[in-house]
Design a protein that fits this description.
nine-stranded antiparallel beta sheet, about 170 residues, elongated, alpha+beta
């Protein structure tokens, strides 16, 4: 899925992430390091948009909502469920940080992999699970004629209000 946030200047920023869970309460869960650009953006502005796009089927789902952090236990469960190589990458340093001259990324990954092997329950304190609680959902069905179908749902006081939108 594509996750969109805004930076400190209000400029939109998007990245592709894995949907980790959809809770019984309807929250969309994804995870990462709190010290990444995404983490800092979500801390400053706890709202996001998600986009699922299936080009071949001419379909998409767009979801907007507020962000809350999951519990430390949820973060631990998410991190330890990942493959060892993925844990090593996450432990090697802040995601998206510049690689300066003299930095040996292969060495950093090797050190992190050794840490994972020595302690399979190791979880970086920066690791978190974010939950998007949807307030708005739009389903889009494309059409070759450009007469697309758009169904928009807005969370109301006691449920969802549905509206069909113009293409």
């Amino acid at each position: 899925m594509t996750v969109s946030t805004v930076d400190a200047d209000g400029i939109p920023d998007s990245r592709t992430l894995v949907l980790k869970d959809l809770t019984a309460e309807g929250a969309f869960c994804f995870a990462g390091r709190r010290d990444s650009s995404k983490g800092m953006q979500l801390n400053a502005h706890p709202a996001a948009a998600l986009l699922f796009y299936w080009r071949e089927q001419l379909r998409s789902v767009r979801i907007r909502g507020q962000i809350v952090e999951g519990s430390p236990n949820e973060a631990r469960a998410d991190f330890t469920a990942r493959q060892p190589d993925a844990r090593a990458v996450a432990l090697s340093g802040p995601q998206g940080a510049p690689i300066g001259s003299g930095v040996d990324l292969a060495h950093d990954l090797d050190v992190a992999a050794q840490r994972v092997a020595a302690d399979p329950n190791l979880v970086p304190q920066e690791w978190t699970v974010w939950k998007l609680n949807p307030t708005e959902v739009e389903f889009w069905q494309g059409s070759q004629s450009r007469l697309h179908t758009r169904l928009h749902y807005l969370r109301g006081e006691v449920g969802w209000d549905a509206t069909r939108l113009r293409p």
